[in-house]
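Prompt: For my understanding, could you write out one protein's sequence and backbone structure tokens?
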Amino acid sequence: MPAPQSRYRQPKQLDAAGFQPEISSFRLHLAAEGKAAKTVRTCTEAVAWFAAAHLRRETDLTSWEEVGKQDIQRWIVRLLDWYSSAYASNQYRALQQFFKWLAAEEEILDPMAGLKPPGVPDKPVPVFAAGDLPRLERARAFAERRDAALIAVFRATGIRLSELAGIRYDADDPGRSDVDLWHREITVQGKGRKTRTVKISFDAARSLDRYPRVRARHTQAYRPQLWLGVSNRGPMTASGIYQVIARRGRQCGINVYPHRFRHHFSHTWLDRGGAEGDLMELNGWTSPQMLRRYGASARSARARRSYDRIMEDTP
């Protein structure tokens, strides 16, 4: 998902100066633990931002050992004034990881010990209205068939944007392909480089089957990446797929972004009585935190539908 928009719309200050050596070591630590490149970048940028925008500009501190609880609290208050509580909470947790690592590495006190992250109020999980998805999936030409296949896979699986972008395809050697249309399965690489297999519907399989037929005529069809750009451009990045999905939504008058399909898939699964454990496996979740969030949305929908049945007038 894109970064939240600041009311001030100022670029982040990331020049940590004298605080940078520890941030670089923290980056190496995260990479050595096998964290995804995006996670490494997000966490280290959060720490550098705190150092540059708060420690260097708002204090006279010169080392991490001098940072106290009030520095953390003032920074989080500032973030809450600029951004959403969810974004501030993410920044808090990145700092929390850093100071926990630093305390163990340098044998110093952790200034965040005993602090709690900012509360994030529950929001209704956005799902698609009836009729939205069929409008998005109409297709004929290369770009349309590709986009329809992208949307169909998103809709059928709820996989992450990075997982979709990483799907590999080889028409001549099925063993090197992540797509098994006959069994309606796709192998994806999730967070922490964990591989799992997800199922797709018959409709999604048919939509996905139409795309390789036009893909085969693409000048870069030899590429191992499934999703290729228009005008014979190379493989699509996650950012490129995001832009395609958002543009197609605008053309249809629908607010669409890739993660919304994940919301919709999870909500639909639970709303139809799907097992929670199965959903965790399909979504690649290791923590029940997200499950509770989507479960609350589904329970609310079921309760509203049950109202007339339960509260119908009786003689």
